[in-house]
Amino acid sequence: MKTDHIFYRIFQDLPETFFQLWGELSENPNDYRFDSVELKQTAFRIDGVFLPQDTENPIYFTEVQFQKDTKIYLRLFSEIFTYLRDNEPDLRWRAMIIFKSRSMEPTERQRESVQPFLDSPLVKRIYLNELEVSETTPLGVQIIQLVVAKKKGFLERVTVLINRVKQQFTEENYRLQLLNLLSVIVLEKLPEMSRQELEAMFGIDDLKKTRFAQELIAESKAEGKIEGKLEGKIEGKLEVIPSLLRKGFSVEEIAEILELEVEQVRQAIANLN
């Protein structure tokens, strides 16, 4: 998953996080819908937009930048004004650009033509590596900061947040949203982590309920069906078993996913050795 998509998922599930990053704002996150918008007569789309239900409220555009792009501001403002011209010319607007670090910024010379916008209250620039995080920092902001956190101490921070989520949030859907975001970030940061390690960290029952786990199972089932069609039903499914083992699935879970007998799976594993 691309880094910007992680942020957009966070803003989709936890819209208040965006407004907490901005700072003191009077807008209610519940009055907004996070979405992507198409630019008419172009092939472009703006992926991160908070659309207000009431046109008296400003529209918020957001851009996540983890690579150097000297034209980031020219492109962003061009897209914003194109959208406003074609859709809501009278709508007030704001824009937030989220950088991995200040070093991702264009140079002073490269941003000279847009500097008046950058100096105005219309635009907010966030440098993730400079965010100060403490126990009182809003949970969503702490989750976002994990994206750029160093690996040393990373798992300890995740464990603290997992425990905080489980203790503070009793409403299951919201709790699972938070755990899902954490699991996605953990595997983006540590792709070598086994499923058993994830289950130990998150708790097996909670992990199985997350959207990420459901997507992983669905992906594995689809992989088995595709291989089955290509190689012959049983033979194709058996070819998928090593991949599922590497993902940390147990023998029983593999049998359930591939709709095989447990003994068939065990025999296939034995034949690998």
Key traits:
single chain, 273 residues, alpha/beta, five-stranded mixed beta sheet, 5 strands
Poorly predicted parts: 224-232
Helical content (DSSP H or I, runs of 4+):
40-55%
Q: How many structural domains in the coordinates?
A: 2
What is the arithmetic mean of pLDDT?
83
User: In CATH's first tier, which class of the largest domain applies?
Assistant: Alpha Beta
Largest sheet: 5 strands, mixed
Would you count the extended β strands for me? 5
Class by SSE composition: alpha/beta
Order of helices and strands: HHEEEHEHEHHHHHHHHH
Radius of gyration: 22 Å
For the record, give the distance between the C-alpha atoms at the N and C termini, rounded to a whole number. 33 Å
CATH topology tier name of the largest domain: Trna Endonuclease, Chain: A, domain 1
Strand order of the largest sheet: 1-2-3-4-5
Number of helices: 13
Globular, elongated, flat, extended or rod-shaped: what is the shape? elongated
Label the CATH architecture of the largest domain: 3-Layer(aba) Sandwich
What is the strand content?
5-15%
